[in-house]
Amino acid sequence: MSELIRSRRAWLGAHPVVADALVSAFLTVSCLIEAAFQKSYGDLPGKHPDVVCGVLMSVVVMSLTLRRRMPVPVMAFTLAGNVLLTALGYVPTLGAGLACLVALYTVASHRGLGTSLPVGVLALVVYVVSLAVQGRTFWQSVSNTVLFAGAWLIGRSLRLRRAYLDELEARARRLEQAREADSRAARAEERSRIARELHDVVAHHVSVMTVQAGAARRILHRDPESVQDALSTIEQMGRTALGEMRRLVGVLRTEAEPARSELSPQPGVGDVNGLVEQLRETGLQVQLWIEGESRSLSPGVDLAAFRLVQEALTNTLKHAGPQARAWVRIQYADRQLEIEVEDDGRGLVAGLGRPGGGGNGHGLMGMRERVALYGGDLRIGPRSGGGFEVRARFPLEVP
User: Per UniProt, which keywords does this protein have (predicted)?
Assistant: First the structure.
């Protein structure tokens, strides 16, 4: 039963004209019955309600059917109906007065202050004047003025409350949209970070594996022991790459998936020695200098510095040539961390500086993004005397 009532209320709310028509019809019938059985209107002068009065009153009250669609015209129509009844000499009728109050309430609740206030004042003046013409007393006029003011105030307060609720709903929608936009931006940033990590991991380890596989193929028949060492290095690099990829893919898993145990700490500057040793096993001659007093770095800067060295040495391995040498210098200064990676190979000729080459690829782009993220400076370009160089500076917080 309650569900049926709620559904009917919802339907009437979606069809306001039907709801207003039903209310108007009920008020009309009530006023006609009251006027038919009313034997006397006291000592007030004027004609008692008759058929003409009943018809006029019915038309005035039924005009409330359109009150929400045309509040001001309905207000004017009800006032005109009251003036006409007064001009015809009828005593005041309950239906016509009630129609004026409802129409005034509707104007105040559906129109702004610039419209509802002057309309309300004009309606009050016209109605009070009509009461005076009908011979009403001063206190009767005052009581009707209070009724008009009350109807206007109730309509105005309802409009303000509705506007307040609408603003709350709009603000909630804006906050929801902003939260969704922030969530999308966070997901996009996380995807970009994971893409950079995957590129760094895959590019480095696959490059080492490719070089080792090529060397093993060339000496397969001449030096089987060296081939075994190369295959061992390839296996180790493959396992390391799989572990790194498994760790990164684990970030994308839900909490319900048991991937937490597979996660390992992110690499940092302290792991550069191991990185250099891996590359030396491929035949690349790499020298490493760490200068200054080592200090604890923020996790982001620590990872960015390691990835920068890794990407620079990977590019050297891929593009510098078989006889190239590389130098890595990491210096801890008072307020910054300086990183220099140089080689004497032919990286620029091999494609790093040409459009479509590695210079515009994901690796160097990832370097720029990582350094810029922490407010650092990056210089990538040809080295004086031949080769290629990468120089970066990360600002450090002073304790």
Answer: ATP-binding, Coiled coil, Kinase, Membrane, Nucleotide-binding, Phosphoprotein, Transferase, Transmembrane, Transmembrane helix, Two-component regulatory system
Tell me the two tokens of residue 263. Answer: 């996660």
The token pair that represents 139 in the structure block: 């206190």
Measure the CA–CA gap between 385 and 343, rounded to whole angstroms: 10
- Separation between Cα atoms, residue 347 and residue 182, nearest integer Å: 40
- Please give the backbone phi and psi of residue 91, each rounded to the nearest 5 degrees, phi first: -70, 160
For residue 343, what are the contacts with CB-CB under 8 A and spacing of at least 6? Answer: 316, 320, 324, 325, 326, 327, 383, 387, 388, 389
pLDDT digits (tens, 9 = 90+) for 289-319: 999 888 888 888 888 899 899 888 888 888 8
Strand-pair category, 336-343 with 285-291: unpaired
Q: Of how many residues is the chain composed? A: 399
Q: Which two tokens stand for residue 253?
A: 């898993």
Domains of the chain in start order, with CATH, are: 2-136 (no CATH), 269-399 (3.30.565.10)
- Six-digit token string for 140: 């009767």
The answer to whether the pTM exceeds 0.90 is no
Q: Scan for tokens 């006032």, then name that residue.
A: 79
Phi and psi for 273 in degrees, rounded to 5?
Answer: -55, -45
Q: Which run of H or E residues covers position 232? A: helix 224-251
Angle between helices 299-319 and 272-281 (to 10 degrees): 10
